[in-house]
Design goal:
heterodimer, A: mainly alpha, 9 helices, 61% helix, globular, B: mainly alpha, 70% helix
Chain lengths: 188, 196
């Protein structure tokens, strides 16, 4: 897919990060591409995409290395381990490894591979990293409770018309919009 | 009915895992192409300045939803054999609210944080670390809230069942809502472009 310039509105106007978002694909074309990938997953392997499940699988693996017995007796982690209590090669872990490779290759071909810290113009790098870690941890809690995230629930379950997935999606965006005004300093 | 292919035994376990890698690479490619690895771009969604997230997500949902619907219609795909995430009303409502707050703070979701980290963004890597810490902590504390986690289960529960209308009517309704949403998104972006 060729890179199509977004209209000016697509670019966040701010100075902290000199790199602007020019060069990204048309969002509707990229969305169709993403939808076809999801459809291919449905047709080929009978399941959708995911991300948070791979984190759970990795957490179960780490936990079982540190405390094998406790992990085996943990009702949540046990489901990510094989019958013998050993970590299994999980579909989602391989898929998410693919996501990392795909993102890396795409960015590299588009000349967008740079070590940076993206942040709003009014906060420090350190504050941004603290917010990033805290935001990630809070999402981890939410995704764990909801049995999935934007990939496994919103995209996958959304396309399959699952009630719980739509409930998750609406709740997540409602909360994000409710919290965003308090976080203006971090982003704008 | 011939698909899903794994359900009908066309693929071995190894082939299925190989497909996981290929599908993942394509997923990561399109996320990066659309700019979803950029936290500031994603955060723009919550200030109505950049609605790329909405446009990409809903175009993807429409594409896959219509694809499954039509392939089911012509008898190529057995929709009942595609794994449908189960519904647990209370934990998914609460989980969604918590998740959304974290999304606005971190600026990335779990999948896009991996793309962000893979493209050199340190903040993306910290979202990945945080996400891992969150899931690990919740797993370790699972006993404390396992009752809530498994409460209000509805099994495989779909919008057509909830609304008592046919699958096609729900698909049509979502397409209409999404098209209205796309028009609204374009109007909002034009407005905020004038204001900046």
């Amino acid at each position: 897919m060729t890179a199509i310039d977004l209209p000016a509105a697509g670019a966040l106007k701010s100075a902290a990060v000199p790199r602007v978002v020019r060069g990204y694909s048309n969002p509707y074309l990229a969305g169709i591409g993403l939808g076809l990938v999801l459809l291919a997953a449905f047709v080929l392997v009978g399941r959708g995409l995911g991300a948070s499940g791979a984190f759970a699988s990795a957490a179960a693996t780490v936990s079982t290395v540190i405390a094998p017995d406790a992990t085996h007796n943990n009702a949540y982690f046990a489901r990510y381990l094989g019958v013998d209590g050993k970590p299994t090669v999980d579909w989602l872990v391989i898929e998410l490894t693919g996501v990392i490779i795909g993102g890396l290759v795409s960015a590299s071909l588009a000349g967008r591979l740079h070590a940076t810290i993206e942040r709003g113009p009014r906060i420090t790098d350190r504050a941004r990293l603290v917010f990033a870690f805290a935001g990630g941890a809070i999402m981890g809690v939410g995704a764990m409770l909801a049995r999935g995230c934007t990939s496994g629930q919103a995209l996958t379950g959304g396309a399959l018309l699952s009630v719980g997935s739509w409930l998750f999606m609406i709740a997540a965006f409602a909360a994000a919009y409710a919290v965003a005004p308090f976080l203006k300093r971090a982003w704008l | 009915m011939t698909a899903p292919f794994t359900e009908f035994g066309y693929f071995s376990n190894g082939a299925t895992l190989g497909l996981a890698l290929v599908i993942g690479i394509a997923f990561g490619w399109f996320l990066e192409r659309s700019g979803m690895g950029s936290a500031r771009k994603l955060a723009g969604q919550f200030y109505l300045r950049d609605l790329t997230v909405f446009k990409v997500m809903f175009t993807a949902i429409l594409t896959a939803m219509l694809g499954v619907f039509w392939l089911g219609w012509i008898g190529f795909v057995d929709i009942s054999r595609i794994y449908l995430p189960e519904t647990f009303l209370a934990p998914q409502l609460v989980g969604g609210l918590v998740f959304g707050a974290g999304f606005a703070l971190g600026g990335l979701c779990p999948g896009t944080s991996c793309v962000s980290a893979a493209t050199g963004r340190i903040d993306g890597l910290f979202v990945v670390f945080g996400m891992f810490a969150g899931v690990l902590s919740m797993g370790l504390l699972f006993d404390k809230f396992s009752t809530f986690y498994d409460s209000t289960g509805r099994g495989a529960y779909t919008l057509p069942q909830l609304l008592h209308v046919s699958y096609g009517v729900v698909v049509f309704g979502i397409v209409i809502v999404a098209i209205a949403g796309f028009r609204g998104a374009e109007a909002l972006e034009r407005r905020s472009a004038r204001r900046v």
